[in-house]
Amino acid sequence: xxxxxxxxxxxxxxxxxxxxxxxxxxxxxxxxxxxxxxxxxxxxxxxxxxxxxxxxxxxxxxxxxxxxxxxxxxxxxxxxxxxxxxxxxxxxxxxxxxxxxxxxxxxxxxxxxxxxxxxxxxxxxxxxxxxxxxxxxxxxxxxxxxxxxxxxxxxxxxxxxxxxxxxxxxxxxxxxxxxxxxxxxxxxxxxxxxxxxxxxxxxxxxxxxxxxxxxxxxxxxxxxxxxxxxxxxxxxxxxxxxxxxxxxxxxxxxxxxxxxxxxxxxxxxxxxxxxxxxxxxxxxxxxxxxxxxxxxxxxxxxxxxxxxxxxxxxxxxxxxxxxxxxxxxxxxxxxxxxxxxxxxxxxxxxxxxxxxxxxxxxxxxxxxxxxxxxxxxxxxxxxxxxxxxxxxxxxxx
Length: 397
Fold this sequence. Notes:
single chain, mainly alpha, Growth Hormone, Chain: A, 2 domains, 16 helices, about 85% helix
């Protein structure tokens, strides 16, 4: 029991590194731009580089971990992330920051892409569902506290210490991971000679497996609704409804409470239920709530109804996303590194498209935001219903 708790805390801490890397330095962007003698637009490019690095890094490293083992890749990823984060605090040009952020992304991708497969290697489906639910509950805290930590460090010291503090945290996580997490003895891990053809074969095998892909797509489209909220909620809450900027974080925090609560229920009360069934329930709920959100915004029923609907939507998303990855990892355990890579990359990729659409389209009220969330839920539902159809086919065969 104690070992499970230790593993879960370490896994959760590793997953927190990505949102910390993205969000901690956001409050300092204007200051960093001034110090590096560059524009804010160029500095915002460092966020894009980090996201790009995470996507590409996962696609490359995920399948490699299926052949070379996961723990060593995780540790070297953490070491790379730590060093790159430390160096980011010393940069004096925007080009140096770009390079540091790219290596930070590759290191973070290597450390995180192996976590879900490692959990599945050490657990049966029910145990994996429970552990992943707890990890998701821990991880969701990071994007809430990251800007607060970054703002505090910026006002008390300077922006360089935002990176130094994150590097210290990453170093502690690395030590804990190296000390406590040992390679699993699971037969699903097959160490073999690395080759480009083997990697492409792994991707082909996963892409052709509809059961895996529909799990991944359901979870990724569900997350697109969250990305849409992150991109559109500042305008809706602060500009349109006039919520004070200092209170915005509390409203966002309600979403985190909902996701944490749902993941705890998923881990405690629903652990024996088939994850695909829970996923289908989640996407159906997301669709229903998304439709209600569109009505709330169209009729302009007010901020309280909107916030309540969004909290319910994010709670349903938590049920969907957790069970999507659990279901995907249960199909071909020997390819779970590749599965995790595609899952992470599609979540970032589809989520980025959702955020971009919100950013470039003109919005005058909450309708654009709620419509994007509803559309994301519809696509997630389409993928989820394909899984239901396949389950029925398997039962009738």
